[in-house]
Design a protein that fits this description.
Layout (H helix, E strand, L loop, with lengths): L1 H8 L3 H5 L1 H12 L1 H28 L4 H83 L17 H10 L4 H6 L2 E3 L1 H5 L9 H9 L4 E4 L7 H14 L5 E4 L1 E3 L2 E2 L14 H7 L2 H18 L3 E2 L23 H16 L4 E7 L15 E2 L3 H5 L3 H10 L3 E4 L3 E2 L11 H11 L5 E4 L5 H4 L4 H11 L4 E2 L4 H13 L5 H20 L1
Length: about 500
Amino acid sequence: MGKLFRGRNGYTDEDFENDEMLEEELEDEIDDDDEIGDSKDTDEVENDSEVENNSEDEGDSEEDDDEEDEEEWDEDERRAYRRRRRVRNQIIAYSVVFVILAAFVTCGVFVGRNIVSAIKEKRLAEEQERMQEELQAQQEAEAAHDIVIEAPEVIVEEEPEVDEIGVLANSYISEMPLEDKVAGLFIVTPEALTGVTAATQAGEGTQAALNEYAVGGLIYFDRNIVDEEQLKKMLSNTESQSNYPIFLAVDEEGGSVSRVAKSSIDVIKVGDMAAIGESGDVSQAYEAGMTIGTYLKDLGFNTDFAPVADVSGDGSSALGDRVFGSDAQLVGDMVSNMVEGIEGTGVSSCLKHFPGIGYLEGDTHDGRVETTKTLDEMRNSDFIPFKAGIEAGADFVMVSHVTVADADTVPSTLSKTIMTDVLRNELGFQGIIITDALNMGAITEYYTTEEAAVQAIIAGADMLLMPEDFQAAYNAVLAAVQDGTISEERIDESLERIYRVKCEGMLD
C-alpha cells in the first residue's frame, strides 16, 4: 500500500524517510475517508482535464501549451493544499489524543492518590491495632507475672463468743419464782432479815429467813463485828445458806467511816480521803483501795460501799473529811484510782452519792435536802468524778436523796430524770443503781415504805437499800408486779445487771 501511495502522489523513498512524510502516511492511514475523497477529486480533475484537453485539441491548438502549464501549476497547488490539510488534521488528531491522554493521566493520578491514601490509612490502622494488641498482651503478661496464685483460704466460721457470765446469770434468773426475784432487789441488814436485835452469827434463824426472803444482799455494821474469827464464820455461813449468790457488803471508806478497821480486827488502817486528796498523789488512792479491798476479801466480804465521789464546796459539808477535795478533776483522778484498787481485789466498789452532795450542809439522814445547783452546773463539776469512776469499772452507783430543783421535785432516789435519763442514759452507766438507805429522814418523813420502794423501782433503781420496813417494802413491790404496775420484764432487767456482777466474781 505504501508503494501505491508513493506512486500515486509522486513521492520518492527519500521523501518518506523524514518525519513529515511519516506523519503524512500515518495521517493517510488514520483518515481513509480523506484519502478516498482526495483520490476521487484527483480522478475528477484528471477526467475534467482530459475533457478539457479534448475540447481544446478540437478548438484551438495554440492554447494547449498554456493550459498544460496551468494544469501543472494547479496540480502542485492541490498537492500543497492536501499536504497542509493532512498536517492540520494530524495536529488536531494528536491534540485530541493528547487531551484524552492527559485526562486519563489526571484521572489516574487522582484515583491513584486516593487508592494509595486509603491503603496507607488501612495499613496505619492495622499497625496501630497490632501495636495495641501487643501492648495489651504485654500488660496481661506482666499482670499474670505479678499475680501470686495462692491456695484458696479455708474460711473457718468463728463461733460467736459465748457470754459465759450472761449464760450463768440467766441460769439463776430463769429458775426463780417471782417472790425470789423481788426479794433479790433488796439489800438489808441481818437484823431486818431475821428480826434479831444484833446479828453476830448465821445459824438456823438466818437459814430460815433466807429461805423465805431470798434477798440480794446483806449489809453489816459495827454491831455485827466481834472479832475476826466470828466475822469470817458468820459471812461464810450466810453465803452457804443462801439459795442464790448474795452480796455481803460493808461501808469501808477509810478514815472516819471504817466498820472493820475501827473494830477489834487488826487490819491496815487507811486514813481520811481528804488527807489523800491534799497530797495530790493519786497512787495513794489506789493503795487505799487495794488495802481495803484485800482485807475485806480475806474476811469474806464481796462488796464495799466506797469510794465517796462527791466534790466538796467552799464552806463546810456534812460529809467532812470523807471527800477527796473541791477540785472536780483531782477528785475524779482519786476516785478512779481507788475504784481500780478495790475492784482489783475481787471486791465490788460503789460510787456515792450521786448526783453529788459534798458541798451541802444539810444531811438527808435528818430530812429533805435540796441543791441550788442546776443539772448543767453539776455536769461541769459534780458529775466528773462519777464519770471517772464509771470508766474505771465501778460495779455500783449509789444515788442520794438530794432533790435537784430542775430535775424533779422528788428525792433523786425516786427521780426517773436522775437515775434513768442522766445516770443510765447520759453517763452510760450499765452497772447496778442502788438507792441510799431508804430509812433516812428525807424519805421516811415524806413517803411510806411502800410508796418509796415502788417509786424507786419505777424511776430506775435496781436495788433498794435498807427500807424502813423491809417486809412491807417487799410486799409492796411484789404486789406492784402482780397487778402490772411494774412489769416482770422490768424486774428481770435489774436482776440481769445484779447477777452479771455476782457471776463475774464466781468465774474469777
